[in-house]
């Protein structure tokens, strides 16, 4: 009989002082189509946020660009005053010019404006984790990093993270502040950023994968489907569970605008993958 796995750590401490459950919630999908404008069902979005916290979520990831502004406003509407221990991470560094349009802007003037806006919308005096959404190739990185350093020194943000970065990018940023999280695209079938994950493990940096399932990888889908059927689970649950087993510094932020789907995602931790399952998934080739 195959040995089952489920011995991974259920929590991770961000920056040495923010303990969170490794199964969090990503609040991008509680906006309109194209991550633009208000959600189709405002009340359901509020129910999703409240239910997430009821189910034990204490790490919510958002950004000023989701809506824009809509996601942050809904979080405050649903959850403020926030329960003790709830960590809200937000991001800055992208502009919105329309549905599915995300121009990068890492200029300090822009970041100052959107950071102040996030504080106001979230009704916070300090943001626990502020993440740079992208490094802007049009702006010298040191200017962006100096602004983030200043925001931390003045108390507007407690901890700082990065998104879609290389190991060298992280090392450059570490000259200005402690990098406590990295949010890169990563999944069982897309491991382009494996070197970044390994570096983050060495440095005790949270690694937050976005797009945790590449639906275009047919071979991977077949393997996931077979394992999911064996466990009475969905392929999404299996893909998420593999990530929890893969590295203890991985934090998951599956997003949804539906309470039903949220509850399904939260059952990810009920699955007990076997060593053979893990070996099979480890061997998946990128699309």
From TrEMBL:
Q: What's one Pfam family here?
A: Aldo_ket_red
CDD domains to which the protein is assigned, alphabetical: AKR_AKR13B1 (cd19088)
Cross-referenced InterPro entries: AKR, Aldo-Keto_reductase, NAD(P)_OxRdtase_dom_sf, NADP_OxRdtase_dom
Q: Is Oxidoreductase included in the keywords of this UniProt record?
A: yes
Coiled-coil region list? none
The segment(s) forming the NADP-dependent oxidoreductase domain are 22-284
Keyword list (alphabetical) reads: Oxidoreductase
Gene3D superfamilies from the UniProt entry:
NADP-dependent oxidoreductase domain (3.20.20.100)
PANTHER family named in the record: AFLATOXIN B1 ALDEHYDE REDUCTASE, ALDO-KETO REDUCTASE YAKC [NADP(+)]
What is the name of the protein in this document? Aldo/keto reductase
